[in-house]
# Entry
Amino acid sequence: MTRLSVDLGWTWQQSVWQGAALIAGLTLVETTTENILRITPSLVSTHPLGLPAGGTDEITQDVLGQPDSWLYPEYFPDQQSLIDSAREWAAAQGVGKKVSERIGIVSTENGDTGAYFFGPFLLPLVTQGSVVFINAQAPEFIDSVVNQEKITRLLRP
# Structure
């Protein structure tokens, strides 16, 4: 099975591309030095609205031409361990005890997703909640984002 790393930083597009990879039956891995396919900002625009940035190798323009339709994901048995680890991690964080929980995840100072690389994508799926990304580089706004977004559980890496 093809191994893919999605390394777009602290952006909503990280979880979109991780979801697309799983739907396509790819194996998601964290960024390593191994010979794997990598989705990085040089290939995908990290514009807040997902608009193309004009890079020569950028694939964002091609994606925009695709129809908006739901792709029903196929279940791939080798993804079960990833799903199980997401459930275990969520339970260890105390997340998912309430249905439709609103989970705020604060990035690390350098913008990483922190201890759980797949959290932004998998937490909503395994907890039936939603995730709000909060940038730790603006700590003075964390409380106001929590109030504005009605976050019920705040996680800090």
